[in-house]
Amino acid sequence: MNYEEQLKLQSFLDGELPEGDAREVAAWVARDKQAAGLLAELRHTREAVAGSDQAVRLPESREFYWSKIQREIARLEPAGTREARAFSLWDYLRRLAVPATALALVAIAGFVANRGLTGGGGTGVTEFSVSVGEALTYRDYAAGATLVWLSYPADNEVAQNSSSATLP
Amino acid sequence: MNYRVIPLGLLAGLFFLSAWLVPAQTALAGDVKLEVYLIWGTDVAKSPDDKHKPVDNELLEKLKKLPLKWKHYFEVNRKPVTLVGSDPSKVTLSDKCKVEIKHTGKSTIEVSLFGKGEPVVKGTQTLPKGETLFLAGNAPDSTSWLVAIKRVE
Prior knowledge:
The structure holds two protein chains of two kinds.
Chain A: H1 3-14, H2 19-31, H3 33-52, H4 62-86, H5 89-118, E1 126-130, E2 135-140, E3 145-150
Antiparallel strand pairs in A: 2-3
Chain B: H1 5-29, E1 32-42, E2 53-54, H2 57-64, E3 72-83, E4 89-92, E5 97-105, E6 108-115, E7 118-126, E8 132-139, E9 143-151
Antiparallel strand pairs in B: 1-3, 1-9, 2-3, 4-5, 5-6, 6-7, 8-9
């Protein structure tokens, strides 16, 4: 017996089958011992369970009863939620988190940009203007050194030291 | 969205923000300490002037990495300089070589070099701690002069 046939027997017992189907099932049960056995077992089970359930009688209609429950839930929920939120620092921080994170990202971007301009990251800004001749600038980032080479005429050198014979 | 990750990002952001703001303020408020050198570049191994001494290793290493052809560098003069606020500081390195340095904020300095009292070059340079600015040019007999400004603090 397959599952569909078992369900058909259950429907037959519950009186849910159309008249034609019910007659067919009755004939099938009459000639099939296995079907008759299962039907008897189902009937016994229904009788046993039916005696254990006790019906609850409501003082008012079902709809009115549930509407009372619904109104009570609605009355209690906002107050409970407000109370919980008043003491929840986490919720407060969570609301601040998104704009604060955005601000932090802007600060990081500014930090990176600023470090780049001020040379904190190894870069340097060099701006020189010469009065005489020309200037060439060379920077070695690894050494942290910047050279400004001036085509200042050697005869007019600036490094002359009167105490030295070697420096002109 | 994972809200547990956000406070970590927030803390990291605040850390970087403080790292950005605090040094910027202290750099503006604090003193800038420099060492200013007058250097002679030559191929001669020993300077005729006994007062000259080879430059220290730190400076020599920087010089070696620059596109300069000279084999030896001698320290002719060295002056410590402390820049307070934005007041300019004048440094006399030789009879004809003077430098005026001014702190213009954060890590930037303004340098003016004078030769025989006349302005030679003027400019600005970001100079974080440990970095060095060299102003240099040719000198007679295929030698060179260099003014090195090293940020100490």
